[in-house]
Amino acid sequence: RTLSAAILKHLQRLGLQDFPCGIGSWNKSRFDACRRTRGKRPGPGRAVPPGEESPEALLDLLRDKHSPWALPAGCSPEDQRLREMVVLDPRLSRPSRLMPVLRTLRIVDKGVEEVDEGLLQLEQLEELILSVNQISRITSANLPRGLKVLELCGNAVADLQDLCVQPPPQLQHLGLGYNRLCSPLKDNCLTADFWPNLVSLNLSFNSLTDLLGLVSQLTSLQKLRILVLQGNPLALIHTYRGFLVDSLPKLIILDDIHIGPDERQQFHGLAGQPELIRNEARVVVSIGEVKGVPDPSTRQQLEVGSKAPMVTYSYCVTYEF
């Protein structure tokens, strides 16, 4: 259940060591030429020996959706790029050679539980997508230092302490939507001390309730331009959007809605009135129709002086939120 194991399994599924990728009779002379030139790729226009295929012909087999060697279902455009890289340079069919040159990695819904130190082999990795796995803790020391995008949507992350130990200094996007974060977020883990270059932050659909505490951390993120907090209880606070818009003057998009000049003017000064932030929400419930119970208004009137017993009805309606 480690990320390294999931990566190797994913690369095997792409068939990088099989035709039309990899090294075989279809490109043996080209591979031999690479070795004779000490790893340099032969230039274009080289004659293709009988019985072998040109790189162009092999690429066509990969790109044609009707080809038996087309990309397997569920793969990403990045997977297609990897296969084409291997066709052009067959030596990359070995994981030990391919992993150091990967720039984007997408491992989604593969049951990954641990981001292990094997990820450090991906020295040039800039984008890591690990959505819909089973990751509860992630140690930042196991992340490549050049990482710019980290997407962890749909996992089980409950705190950010391990992630903040040694975070990638160039990270620009951090996606933590649909996890288990709750207030208060300890140790100022969302400040510029840890994320000096963060441009985009997604904390949607967690259990965050402390709006004032969260904003006090986010105000230090001078490069933050995109913020998503919808789906948290704090988003029910009456002055939620206005307070954020005025507190984060460099923010451009909040909850997927662009912040315009008119909106900024409308909420100007609200950041200086924290007393308006009340950690409560008002819910109005309207009952349109109730079926299956007697209507008291249609009850027959008793005759004057009648000794018949009076029948009354009472109802209790319960709501669960």
Write the layout of secondary structure elements.
Layout: H1 3-13, H2 28-36, H3 55-63, H4 77-88, H5 95-98, E1 104-106, E2 127-129, E3 149-151, E4 173-175, E5 200-202, H6 211-218, E6 226-228, H7 240-247, E7 253-254, E8 257-258, H8 261-266
Parallel strand pairs: 1-2, 2-3, 3-4, 4-5, 5-6, 6-7
Antiparallel strand pairs: 7-8
Helix pairs in contact: 3-4
Keywords: Leucine-rich repeat, Repeat
Protein name: LRC43 protein
InterPro entries: Leu-rich_rpt, LRR_dom_sf
How would you sum up this structure, described in words?
By secondary structure, this protein is an alpha/beta fold. Helices cover 21% and strands 7% of the residues. It has an 8-stranded mixed beta sheet, with helices on one face. Helix 3 packs antiparallel against helix 4 (77-88). The longest helix has 12 residues, at 77-88. It is elongated and about 115 Å long. Keywords: Leucine-rich repeat, Repeat.
Key phrases:
321 residues, 21% helix, single chain, alpha/beta, 8 strands, 8-stranded mixed sheet
